């Protein structure tokens, strides 16, 4: 079955970066209440303002959890501004499988959580700059 | 047992296939498939007598009105109501419940009053009462459930007080399939002079509904969950109540006379059916009722129980499976479960790859899922066309989940 490709199952069963980050610079929680998927993402920036350490926690379906695991690897080295600009196609490409309309929310939950965390960070900086 | 081979032939959609596998439809709690009798009735109506009701002098309008009212008559008999004035057509069970909340509720619920619902309620029989209670500063009380997924009847009796104005309760849980002792609930409520609304959206398709025997004040259900078309709901209400309630929606068809500044309203049931109704849908609903009458609800009930027993036997063999169903005596046609290794969405996805339709998520019962301490569940729900072979195929899909995820 294509949806549950080896790589997706591997990320689901052995997620990357599923850990707690102490004193993160940014953090956000999101969920899909209809299906019970939950994601928390937190990260720390290096001196250049790029993601240096990232961790996630969550529960839910294989697609939401695997997509988030894969995403965290991609976010290392990106600035919050770059994260906010990421588009959904990046996720579909990363997953490499066809996502049916019913599973779009699952696939994108990690990205929307990461964006929420990045946005919070950008907004705090703006407030501080003022 | 009922003749499922014969019955399956009446449902065109069950002949469709994916990768050579015929569709197994096990999401009947959400909606049911339609027999060709119902489908043909829709086409036949539009091809031969399409016109609006209660308006025309010409032949086809009269015919349309006649057919529309014939369904009302059949619905009356189906639930054993007293008068056709007590049968109101709406869009769905949700609208039927909202109708009561916006009319009777608005008129009769005041600050300090109490409304009782159960932990089993579908959002459609919970949210309207939450909103009404908040608006009126009334109190919403929830009947808890027992650890065996039955209703805590003793707790219910304690919740009833002199302040209780309404008990709004499902007759059958759409999540655990629990059959609720509605008659006993109504008897207790009436002792306190509280009115009772029964949400029969789930039960009407699976067990006999007798509003006289129940002595309920309101009863709501939906055609599409009982072989009928979507977009047709039914509200039963005692005529004495309907006569006193204000209208729900205002406009055409619900009036007696209209002047520039005011209007006099029609008598029930027309008073509650403003605007052009889903005529074709209501007309075709008659065929659904006839179909159920022909097969017999008793036979359907027996057939489903046998399927449920068979499915529970099959599924409970796997230690990864947790089933959320009451003891068989209280159970109906639903098998809700979780798998320790697979999220419900992934379960439904894998079932779908085998062309088996099941529900995954919270089935519009988020508070119940919170009580059960699960984020979501997978639900198999049977109907008259399902077979033991369907259960066997579901078991095969279950094994596939375990192969992929365990």
Characterise this structure.
The complex is a heterodimer of chains A (130) and B (406). With 130 residues, chain A is α+β, with helices and mostly antiparallel strands. Chain A has one domain (6-125): Sufe protein. Chain: A. Helices cover 48% and strands 19% of the residues of chain A. Chain A contains 5 helices and 3 strands; from the N terminus they run H-E-E-E-H-H-H-H. Chain B has 406 residues and is of the alpha/beta class. Chain B has a 7-stranded mixed beta sheet, with helices on both faces. In chain B, strands 13-14-17-16 form a 4-stranded antiparallel beta sheet, with helices on one face. The two termini of chain B are 37 Å apart.
Structure characteristics:
heterodimer; A: 130 residues; Sufe protein. Chain: A; 3-stranded antiparallel β-sheet; 5 helices; 48% helix; globular; B: 406 residues; Aspartate Aminotransferase, domain 1; Aspartate Aminotransferase, domain 2; 2 domains; 7-stranded mixed β-sheet; 17 strands; 40% helix
């Amino acid at each position: 079955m294509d949806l549950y490709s080896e790589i997706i199952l591997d990320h689901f069963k052995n997620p990357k970066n599923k850990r707690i980050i102490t004193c993160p610079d940014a953090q956000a929680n999101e969920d899909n209440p209809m299906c019970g998927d939950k994601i928390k993402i937190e990260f720390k920036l290096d001196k250049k303002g790029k993601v240096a350490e990232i961790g996630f926690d969550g529960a839910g379906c294989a697609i939401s959890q695997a997509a988030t695991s894969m995403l965290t690897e991609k976010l290392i080295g990106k600035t919050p501004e770059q994260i906010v600009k990421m588009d959904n196609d990046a996720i579909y490409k990363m997953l490499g499988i066809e996502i049916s309309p019913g599973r779009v929310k699952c696939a994108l939950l990690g990205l929307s959580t990461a964006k929420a965390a990045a946005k919070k960070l950008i907004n705090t900086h703006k407030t501080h700059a003022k | 047992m009922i003749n499922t081979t014969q019955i399956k032939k009446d449902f065109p959609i069950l002949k469709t296939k994916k990768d050579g596998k015929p569709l197994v439809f096990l999401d009947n709690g959400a909606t049911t498939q339609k027999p060709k009798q119902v489908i043909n009735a829709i086409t036949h109506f539009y091809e031969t007598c399409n016109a609006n009701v209660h308006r025309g002098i010409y032949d086809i309008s009269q015919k349309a009105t006649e057919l529309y009212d014939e369904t009302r008559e059949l619905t009356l008999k189906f639930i054993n109501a007293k008068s056709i004035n007590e049968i109101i057509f709406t869009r769905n069970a949700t609208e039927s419940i909202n109708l009561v909340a916006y009319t009777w509720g608005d008129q009769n619920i005041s600050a300090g009053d109490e409304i009782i619902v159960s932990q089993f309620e579908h959002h459609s029989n919970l949210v309207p009462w939450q909103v009404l209670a908040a608006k009126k500063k009334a109190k919403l009380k929830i009947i808890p459930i027992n650890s065996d997924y039955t209703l805590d009847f003793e707790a219910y009796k304690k919740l009833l007080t002199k302040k209780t104005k309404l008990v709004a309760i499902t007759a059958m849980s759409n999540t655990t399939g629990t059959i609720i002792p509605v008659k006993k609930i109504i008897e207790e409520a009436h002792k306190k002079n509280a009115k009772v609304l029964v949400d029969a959206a789930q039960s009407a398709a699976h067990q006999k509904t007798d509003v006289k025997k129940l002595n309920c004040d309101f009863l709501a259900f939906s055609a599409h969950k009982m072989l009928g078309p979507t977009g047709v709901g039914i509200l039963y209400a005692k005529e004495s109540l309907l006569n006193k309630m204000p209208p729900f929606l205002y406009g055409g068809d619900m009036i007696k006379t209209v002047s520039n500044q005011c209007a006099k309203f029609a008598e029930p049931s027309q008073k509650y059916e403003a605007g052009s109704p889903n005529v074709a849908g209501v007309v075709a609903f008659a065929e659904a009722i006839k179909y159920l009458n022909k097969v017999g609800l008793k036979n359907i009930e027996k057939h489903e129980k046998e399927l449920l027993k068979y499915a529970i036997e099959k599924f409970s063999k796997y230690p990864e499976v947790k089933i959320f169903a009451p003891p068989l005596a209280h159970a109906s046609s639903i098998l809700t479960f979780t798998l320790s290794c697979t999220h419900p969405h992934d379960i439904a996805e894998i079932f779908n790859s085998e062309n088996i339709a099941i529900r995954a998520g919270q089935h519009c019962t988020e508070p119940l899922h919170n009580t059960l301490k699960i984020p979501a569940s997978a639900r198999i729900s049977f109907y008259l066309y399902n077979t033991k072979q369907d259960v066997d195929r579901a078991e095969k899909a279950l094994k596939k989940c375990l192969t992929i995820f365990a």
